[in-house]
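Case study 2.
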Amino acid sequence: MPRVAFTPHLRRHLAVEDVTVEGRTVRAVLEAVFVEQPRLRSYVLEDSGALRQHMVIFVDGEQVADRASLADPVGDGSTLHVLQALSGG
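Prediction:
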């Protein structure tokens, strides 16, 4: 089962721990996480279901390509890192 890791910054705002859940796509994995952490949904996703502009998800070190439908594939042993994208200078 895929493992989902959250950055310390997200943990400061929401009481989320790293979890292992079922899912074959980024969307399916996130939906499984949201069952246990419903407040996390609005922090990570837009109302449309797309990834928020300042959020980034990496699957096994590769940034997700499909920010709208989150259909990137996820393997059984994959690790997803969910973090806020930083900008500025």
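Residues 25 and 62 are 14 Å apart (CA to CA).
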